[in-house]
Records
---
Amino acid sequence: MSQQEGQSQSQERRRFTRIAFDAEAELRHGDQRWMVEIKDISLKGVLLSHPAGFEAQAGAELMVECWLDSDVQLVLPVVLKRVDAEYLGCACGAIDLDSITHLRRLVELNLGDDSLLERELDHLIAAQ
């Protein structure tokens, strides 16, 4: 990776606030399923615990499902970006309207500043 690409990725990461988030979720890869912990989440991605027996390479398309409440579910199609012994770093793909609405609300509640949320939404739209 060139220095310019590294700086670009670093700037991209700073545009989206990562929210510490300790929740159980289901990770799916094809027909396989694992229970994982969501460690943090943003409008652009999610950091998951690395489940035993999980073997996929960066670039794999996965699905993360998490119940926020008895009737509120996040369904996040993600692409695996980073794998290490403890964590899986994933970038969000095309999220359905209900899930992006719930994710937006989650970020909004944790940021506590509407202007920060609007800035992040602008960056998300610009990145598309």
---
Amino acid sequence: MSTQAPNEARVIPLRPQTSPPAPGGANRTPEAPAPKEPLWRDLVGDVLRRERLAQERTLKDVAETARISMPYLSELERGRKEASSEVLAAAAKALGLGLGDLLSLAQDELVRHSTRSRPTHRRTAPSAQANGLCLAA
């Protein structure tokens, strides 16, 4: 049975609530928050900007070559916009890259970030038996 008044709205918190302090004011060391995973758009934007600057090109030059607006390219580089694959391919081509190259460089950044922020876990190939394959003669 609910203890709410009939006309009172129920609020569901979106963030986990912090636990109350320990009884008696016991000091405990606060746990460090888990590192935040980077967003894909941030990684792609970083790669676009790094490649453009490495070529010593301006936003205007790359945007004109890619046939996208300069403000939009700036937003992409800053991770403020989520670009379509067509726009990413045009931006990559304007920088002399293929779409696969751009995404591969962004994946490398993601892997680098992940290995810095987490303990490393070895990924092992699944066994044939676990995949339901029978290798018996």
---
Amino acid sequence: MKDYIYQRVLEVSHYIYETKATVRQAAKVFGVSKSTIHKDVTERLEKINGQLAKKVKKVLEYNKAERHFRGGEATKRKYMEKNSSDAREG
């Protein structure tokens, strides 16, 4: 594994664990794709640091379990904003 990939895997993993960030949030912060982040923390990290891999996996599982709540909130905000702008125009 190249040094820069090794370093990124550790940085991304620590970031996700410490901030409880989603894969999408981490991808935005580190300027790489969601697929890259996912591969980093599910495949590469296991080979580098098994303990950290377990911790990050728990965060990812929690985020996945909560995903439908966040999606519902985003949709709710979207329609609330749309309705309030319609009311101002009408």
